[in-house]
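Chain and backbone:
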Amino acid sequence: MSTAIDLASKLATFTEAWQPRTVSLFNGHDVMVAKLRGDYHWHVHEDSDDFFLVLAGRLEIDLDDGAMVTLVTLDPGQLCVVPKGVRHRPRAPLEAQIVLIERTGTPNSGDPATAAPRRVL
């Protein structure tokens, strides 16, 4: 049986940036919350799209399609899906709080060797 998940209370349980926490599962995907501050590194997910929904703050995502770099700016209530295979770099000048959806097991850095460990709340 499903119950409501309070995202604000889940986000209040940690302070670390770039360390997503899984709050639910959805059709083989992790639904995660995360706090972002500063720049993340350029990376790519070869086999999975990357879903970003901003809850608070502002998120900027640089997208590199090989020919040019495009900036997507997201404010609260806005989302962006980065297609698989697209090199990207999320960044948050100030703290942003977001929901991420990725296939379970997808390394957040695009590389299992440098990925944050999976944490479930």
The beta strands are 21-26, 29-39, 50-56, 59-64, 69-74, 79-82, 87-103, 119-120. The first strand starts at residue 21 and ends at 26. The longest helix spans residues 7-11.
